[in-house]
Write a structure and sequence with these properties.
The chain is built from four helices and 14 strands. The termini are far apart. The chain has one domain. The protein is of the alpha+beta class.
């Protein structure tokens, strides 16, 4: 009997060790895939010149956009910023669920060309977490989520619609790197009225647009899509609505440090990622801080 129990204990211990090794390997693989996507964004940022508009191009912008840029760049736009890196923390709601869970995330974004890599970590059960990431570079996207680095629960690769959603994601996040919204880059502006304007981004034959709402002080209050989202998908994608609050001067730029990103359909706005920017850095050469 003792030998039987000893054998069972050894087998159980071996299974635990094998499970831990599998989790470690899965986590390493996930980290390596995320790092590879970040490098794709860095390569894209190196190759793209950021916008450097002249006074005539700025003067031709819609009135609320000019006010927004004056608010955002009180001392004028910084020159030569190519890349932004940020860390965020808040609460995230997984697709087709109602509850929120504490989540941390990082994001690396190119300024002069639509490219980004986003990675998040969120708990599923006590002691069990999921890592989700999506990346968009060279006009193509990839989106994945894994539990413990082993069980893949989301696995989406580029299609024209998903690529367009990722292009919109880059635009939706752009108030955190507002140099990308200057004339001469991939974004153009269309007038609507004294407090709204349409931002249109084009890249690789794809186009995406969002309507910006501006506050009286010039700050950008929200970006919103003009079409409903599909709430049945196993991913949130870019979301169709974002609010931006708590503007703070970071170096030479006024940035919104609080956000709520939502799905929108049928007249409803359904938040799924609400939080704060905990750290943000702009780089004029890859690896060299701008401020």
């Amino acid at each position: 009997m003792r030998r039987t129990w000893r054998t069972a204990a050894l087998l159980a211990g071996g299974m635990v060790v094998a499970g831990l090794i599998a989790v470690l390997i899965g986590s390493w693989r996930t980290g390596a895939e995320i790092a590879a996507h970040v490098e794709r964004v860095r390569v894209a940022a190196r190759a793209a010149m950021p916008p450097d508009p002249d006074s005539a191009a700025l003067a031709a912008l819609p009135v609320p956009v000019r006010a927004y840029l004056r608010f955002t760049f009180p001392d004028g736009p910084p020159v030569g910023v190519r890349l932004v890196e940020m860390e965020m923390a808040g609460d995230f709601r997984r697709p087709r669920t109602e509850g929120f869970a504490p989540t941390t995330a990082s994001q690396t974004v190119a300024v002069g060309v639509p490219a980004l890599a986003f990675a998040a970590r969120t708990p599923i059960l006590p002691g069990i977490h999921a890592r989700a990431w999506d990346a968009f570079a060279d006009g193509r996207m990839e989106m994945k989520a894994r539990i413990l680095g082993l069980v893949t629960v989301v696995d989406e690769t580029g299609s024209p619609e998903l690529d367009r959603i990722s292009l919109r994601r880059w635009l939706l996040e752009s108030p955190l790197y507002p140099m990308a919204l200057l004339p001469g880059g991939p974004v153009t502006w269309q007038a609507i009225d004294d407090s709204h304007a349409r931002a249109v981004v084009s890249h690789g034959g794809l186009t995406a647009a969002l309507v910006a709402s501006f506050r009286p002080d010039g700050s950008l209050a929200s970006f919103a899509a003009e079409e409903d989202g599909d709430l049945t998908t196993p991913y949130h994608g870019s979301g169709e609505h974002v609010t931006r609050e708590d503007y703070q001067l970071v170096g030479e730029v006024m940035l919104p440090m609080a956000f709520t990103i939502s799905r929108a359909a049928g007249g409803r706005i359904l938040p799924f990622w609400r939080g704060r920017v905990m750290r943000i850095a702009f780089r004029n050469q890859i690896g060299v801080p701008s401020f």
